[in-house]
Amino acid sequence: MASDALVLDGVHAHYGRSHVLHGVSLSLRRGALLALLGRNGAGKSTTMLTIAGLIKPSGGRISAGGTAIDALAPEAIARSGVRLVPQGRRVFPSLTVDENLAVAAQMRPVPRPWTMERVFELFPHLERRRRQRAGTLSGGEQQMLAIGRALMGNPEVLLLDEPSEGLAPLLVVEVVRGIAQLKAEGLSIILVEQNFKLAMTLADDVVVLNTGAVAISGTAAQVLADPKAFTSHLSVT
Ligand SMILES: Nc1ncnc2c1ncn2[C@@H]1O[C@H](COP(=O)(O)OP(=O)(O)OP(=O)(O)O)[C@@H](O)[C@H]1O
Ligand SMILES: [Mg+2]
């Protein structure tokens, strides 16, 4: 629907001659969290990179808020309000936490613009590291910083690729709490996650990819009614 935050319609993607996405379609409802699941190599990150414009789709359409974005450059997609926190969390290692956030700031017409102070309210852990160089942070702290950097761009759609990967359990809790708060504030979110149970604590809708195509999709209620139909496409249950 035109009112959806993000729509993929029959999206194909290639790495050179290797055909990796085979007509992926999905809709992210406004203010909802869509969990994008699938085994290693299923095409989750490729889908996220393609939405963000870092891989050009070789077929299909992608629109945000009813406007086509698939022909735009990555910077223009970010400016349009679609922000990716890539797998492996990219921060500037030699800049401090404050500096990383400051350089990411971009004004957009949103109801409550993001400030550094708001990022620190969301992730109090990060505030204690304000003057520390990002390269010396723990993995979990870098993940919070990477999310904070995306938020400083005042997005409407946030794409999170495995934010819990490799984090100590306590920091996973803080990151998950932060994501839940962003959802409560009305951000539309696609969350790629290996941990099915963790994904289900946050998800409104679920899409499972298998070898670059949508194997099954549904609402969280449909997943709860028949979890095996969904987990049969995943490595872990
Ligand atoms: N830069 C690349 N060049 C060529 N093939 C790639 C490249 N990146 C990924 N692929 C291939 O594309 C397919 C999808 O990879 P992708 O990274 O999207 O999977 P994923 O679902 O994110 O997996 P993971 O859970 O391991 O992160 C895999 O077969 C992978 O080997
Ligand atoms: Mg991936």
From TrEMBL:
- Sorted alphabetically, which keywords does the UniProt record give? Amino-acid transport, ATP-binding, Cell membrane, Membrane, Nucleotide-binding, Transport
UniProt keyword ATP-binding, yes or no: yes
User: Which residue numbers delimit the ABC transporter domain?
Assistant: 6-236
Q: Does the keyword Nucleus apply?
A: no
Under PROSITE patterns, the record lists: ABC_TRANSPORTER_1, ABC_TRANSPORTER_2
GO MF, one term, reads: ATP binding
Which Gene3D superfamilies does this UniProt record tie to the protein? P-loop containing nucleotide triphosphate hydrolases
The UniProt entry's sequence similarity note says: Belongs to the ABC transporter superfamily.
Q: What is this protein called?
A: ABC transporter ATP-binding protein
Name the source organism. Caenimonas terrae
